[in-house]
Amino acid sequence: MSETPANAFPVYWEQFHRDSRALAFRLKGVADWKAIVCITRGGLVPAAIIARELGIRMIDTVCVASYHDYESQGDMQVIKAIDPSVVDVEGGEGEGVLIIDDLVDTGKTAKVVRAMLPKAHFATVYAKPMGRPLVDTFVTEVSQDTWIYFPWDMGLQFQPPITHEHAG
After folding, report:
1. Which parts are annotated binding residues?
2. Which residues does the UniProt record annotate as the domain Phosphoribosyltransferase (predicted)?
3. In the chain, what are the domain boundaries?
4. Per-residue model confidence as pLDDT tens digits over 98-155
5. What is the pLDDT of residues 123-137, one digit of tens each?
């Protein structure tokens, strides 16, 4: 990102951990969770925290890419689908499965994953208004024009991934 947006919301590791634990607390007792499907890459960290807090051992990923340049959403690409054994864990369609992501933004990714697991419970740490109706549980709502800087995106300033600094 070349410049900081007016509505920047930096989230540091301690806060993200607390917010992820708060999400786990909200999910405790909602159902007898059999598995977690985390949406990569943003869902990996909260999924690990929630799995630990709720004692869930079966974890799978669905790999969906929509942000290709850290600035704008592009075409939706499913890079890796959910393992069929997770889809069918409680008789099919994702019943007993938690879908975890860091953020629901426009809802494009959420719609794709919801179609794969229509009976799953969708939970995110943060939600924006456009995507919020697609999520069952979340911790914090931010405005649609807010850009969240996650801990893995930051140093003293925004840090591009290492692979962008090397040729070949």
Report:
1. 41-42, 101-109, 147-148
2. 19-159
3. 31-140
4. 999 999 999 999 999 999 999 999 999 999 999 999 999 999 999 999 999 999 888 7
5. 999 999 999 999 999
Per the annotation, where are the binding residues for GMP? 105-109, 147-148
Long-range contact list for 25-29, CB < 8 A, 24+ apart? 25/53, 26/123, 26/137, 26/139, 27/54, 27/98, 27/121, 27/123, 27/137, 28/53, 28/54
CATH, domain range 31-140: 3.40.50.2020
Tokens for 53?
Answer: 């807090």
Task: Return the CA Rg of the chain.
Answer: 16
- Helical spans, DSSP H, in the chain: 13-27, 44-54, 84-87, 108-116
How far is residue 127 from each of residues 35, 48, 102, 133, measured CA to CA in Å?
22, 19, 9, 9
**pTM confidence score:** 0.85
Q: Tell me the two tokens of residue 82.
A: 């959910």
Residue type at 130 in one-letter notation: M
Of 68, 77, 22, 13, give the one whose Cα is nearest residue 45: 13
Q: Please, which pLDDT band fits residue 69 given cuts at 50, 70 and 90?
A: low
Dihedrals phi, psi of 152, to nearest 5 degrees: -75, -10
Residues in binding site for xanthine: 105, 148
Which residue's structure tokens are 């709720």? 54
